[in-house]
Amino acid sequence: MKSIQIHQYGGPEVLRRVDAPMPEAVPGTVLVRVHHAGINFMDIHTRQGKYAKSRTYPVRLPCTLGMEGAGEVVALGEGVNSHAVGDRVAWCIVWGSYAEYAVVPAWQAVQVPAALPLDLAAVSVFQGYTAHYLAHDVGRLVPGRSCLVHAASGGIGQILIQIAKNAGARVLATTSSADKAAVARSRGAEQVFLYDEGRFADAVREATGGQGVDVVFDSIGKATLRDSFRATRVRGLVVNYGNVSGSVTDLDPLELGEAGSLLLTRPRLADHLRDAAEIRRRADDIFGALQDGSLRIDIAGRYMLDNVEEAHAAYEARRMVGKPVLDLRP
């Protein structure tokens, strides 16, 4: 079968087209004919070697890329009674979806409603699940709560804004340009500020009557985290769920006290997808919202395996607003 593998870490040039052996469903898994695979920064980070020593995401070389996808079940492993051949399913945090076939643990594969296109399912689970747990489980957003969403025009940011608004929270946001700010507003952000070398914190304070927001969702890290503290109310919560600008390696816990007895957490999606029931709960909410129109996720570009390097380069350089997808349909 056709697949995209990496045998060394590096840029898009290390992506290799490999004619790999046909996989087989082992006990507890389903074999899926992949129709679409989402392209994520986790794929790029895997390619770059950022998970080379990770215990949470133990993917090692050589590997087939792609940790999110959707397709049709074609075979069941021994002991699987939760799925049937012909089922339409989607999954994430299972590497190997940049291929014509993938073996997926049955408990991680969720049924896709008949009315939902598989390409949309393929690009909605990873970022959708992430935004869902951030808003509901970590941020505990409800009417009367307020939040600040960094990188608001990005894939997770756009979904997080919408889920927060649907939960009744007040949503402020940050972006790097006026064009991206317009995207954030279109998703429901009440006010959008440019980072402005950290001065967004002053703008947030002004917009909240000097108090700051209840929760800051910070996926940027080094360039914004300390100013995120300034944008948070006394005894508020800062959620650092990414570090695209680099990791903060010199943080003294005393700073959290000086900033107003803040709480700081660094969650990971894998710890919020612990069993089939938890995954199903998140999928039901995301798929239901996509179908009733209360959630919108745009597909930014469609690529084939033959031009996956182009897709990686464009997404890594943030030359697209939305989520790219690989089309692997027969």
Give a short synopsis of this structure.
The chain has 330 residues and is α/β, with parallel strands linked by helices. The chain folds into two domains: 2-126 and 274-327, Medium-chain alcohol dehydrogenases, catalytic domain (Quinone Oxidoreductase, Chain A, domain 1, Alpha-Beta Complex), CATH 3.90.180; 142-266, Rossmann fold (3-Layer(aba) Sandwich), CATH 3.40.50.720.
Please explain how this structure is put together:
By secondary structure, the chain is an alpha/beta fold. The chain has 2 domains: 179 residues, Quinone Oxidoreductase, Chain A, domain 1 (Alpha-Beta Complex); 125 residues, NAD(P)-binding Rossmann-like Domain (Rossmann fold, 3-Layer(aba) Sandwich), CATH 3.40.50.720. Strands 3, 5, 6, 7, 8, 15 and 16 form a 7-stranded mixed sheet that branches. It has a 6-stranded parallel sheet with strand order 11-10-9-12-13-14, with helices on both faces. The protein has a 3-stranded antiparallel sheet with strand order 2-1-4, with no helix packed on it. Strand 10, helix 4 and strand 11 form a beta-alpha-beta unit. The radius of gyration is 20 Å and the shape is globular.
